[in-house]
Fold:
Amino acid sequence: MDAILLDLSLAYSTLEYPIFATFMTLVLFLTGAMFASFTGLVVHRIGHLSEDDSILYAISFPPSRCEECSRRLGLIDLIPVIGWVVRRGRCPDCRYSVPKIYPIIEAILGVCTAAIPLIVRDFDWWVLSLVILLWAGFLIAWIDYEHHIIPEELTWFLLFAGLLMTPAVFDVYDRIIGAALCAAAMWFAMFAIGIVTKENTHAGGDVAFAAVAGAWIGVQFVPWYLLILSALYILHAFPLRLRGIKWVPMGPSLVLALLISMLILLCLF
Structure:
């Protein structure tokens, strides 16, 4: 196993094994696309979850089917991106048109996953930690966008993952202080906005994810993260506010700001 990881690291750091690197890049792309497909299933079924249902049961049963004619999806249909292209975006039985957004999202997450070892020019535990951050953050962003909730199970998982295995900060005290400072800054910002607008603007999930961000980037980069977050949220929320949408979920901006911050830190150091 160590020999395989060493060969992979050499393949990405020196690019002396282009065939090996290309093969692993394709594997990572398909893996990321498959997770995006699974995320779409999770987000859809969470929206139809009743109080008596188990989340694990709801995700695993019933098997995936066409939303129009209830035809059970075959193996080809379940292959991300490729299945959509082969079926020409339609159910072979009822000709129901599958929205293009799904293969697009699958392709985007696949590309982002495959790009990680190319960015860090290595294939070690850094790649694993960044894949965990990317996938869990993607799931959080999509759930919050659709249902306006950030599951605390995911934020707790990412918080401890950041404290234990972030590649951007080597001092554990910087991670702990960064988590506390970022969460406090988010809480005070919401508190101040609530006083000005005289509305309840507190969102525990957003504060919790701010702690996650602080743990991954460390205390020194917290101000830059908050600046990037503010810019992204304004760009996201302002057009929606003009259309009369009052409550705009912050989850997508929180996640994207963290990924951008991690990319900057890895490029700098």
In short: The chain has twelve helices and no strands. Residues 182 and 222 are 6 Å apart (CA to CA).
